[in-house]
Specification:
Helix content: 40-55%
Number of helices: 11
Structural class: alpha/beta
Largest sheet: 4 strands, parallel
Shape: globular
Radius of gyration: 20 Å
Order of helices and strands: HEHEEEEEHHHHEHHHEHH
């Protein structure tokens, strides 16, 4: 694995990542996040690295962001003697307490290879946490297991619902090129959900999967285009996200399910009650740290 900070989308915020790494070496460290999937994945990266490195810390999970009033901007807990790192996945906090470090999405401008056109995007908290974790424990086993989920935060952001997200594209290709993930068309994912595409037919997909291995490249492209054509009129589904769901599913090697499916299923089963969500988030995080997989705890 390479240091993510060498990727072009990290250059504009390299100082922020360095500051976070320094802060995580503080005494009496407390990590705080809301009970939201986006925040919990980021927290998992940080905790994995700290455990790999043998750094002591405490954890506190707050109610989901949706349960915090919109005008409430000072909900980071204050605890005397503690150095608090708060994962602000939804950019809710305007001014953190003096002793707290705020990890939030950062806006950047990037250029693709062989292009001079600058594109704007945001590096989310999961991707930042992945870079921070690698810098702290580059050879840590837990940190390595988390690596395939580095782009999950970008997928969970709303930017793909309007247009192409350059940061998502870059981290997807970065992880693919280093062999951490595979990028596959929909029929090549054994256990893929199509629920994210309202007009998609599971039966048509099953038929296509049965025929897939016998089709050549041209026939595959035509068959998949025919499958996706009716989906272009899906309400609330952007062309950019549809393209990813049809042609570019991110998948951990030697697994049956793609990451978009995993995230979708986790969001579907997320408790609505605030207290239940906090408990659920803690169990999911513990399982992530134990196995390196984003799966609900069976405890």
């Amino acid at each position: 694995m390479k240091d993510l900070r060498t990727a072009p989308f990290f250059k504009p915020i390299d100082g922020v990542v360095d500051d976070a790494i320094s802060f995580l070496q503080s005494n009496s460290l407390m990590l705080v996040a809301t009970a939201d999937l986006h925040s919990i994945i980021a927290l998992g990266f940080l905790e994995s690295a700290l455990l790999d490195k043998g750094v002591s810390y405490s954890r506190r999970i707050l109610p989901p962001s949706s349960h915090i009033p919109p005008d409430e901007t000072s909900f980071i807990p204050e605890q005397a003697g503690s150095n608090i790192l708060f994962i602000d996945a939804f950019s809710r906090v305007e001014a953190p307490p003096k002793e707290a470090f705020l990890l939030a999405s950062k806006h950047v401008e990037v250029e693709f290879n062989h292009s001079t056109t600058k594109r704007r995007g945001s590096v989310d908290v999961v991707l930042q946490s992945s870079a921070i974790a690698f810098a702290i424990a580059p050879k840590g086993e837990r940190t390595k297991r988390c690596r395939p989920y580095s782009g999950c935060g970008q997928w969970l952001m709303e930017s793909l619902d309007t247009t192409m997200d350059p940061i998502h594209t870059m981290i997807r290709d970065y992880l693919r090129d280093e062999g951490t993930i595979q990028v596959c068309p929909l029929p090549e994912v054994e256990d893929a959900s199509v629920e994210m595409m309202p007009l998609a037919s599971p039966r048509r997909l099953q038929r296509l999967q049965k025929l897939w291995k016998d089709l050549d490249a041209s026939s595959r492209a035509q068959a998949l285009s025919e499958y996706s054509l009716p989906l272009l009129s899906s309400e609330g589904l952007s062309t950019a996200r549809l393209e990813e769901l049809i042609w570019k599913r991110m998948k951990i090697p030697n697994t049956a399910t793609d990451l978009a499916t995993i995230l979708h299923r986790l969001l579907k089963m997320w408790p609505q009650d605030a207290d239940d969500a906090v408990i659920h988030a803690g169990r999911l995080l513990d399982e992530f740290l134990r196995s390196g997989r984003l799966t609900p705890s069976t405890d």
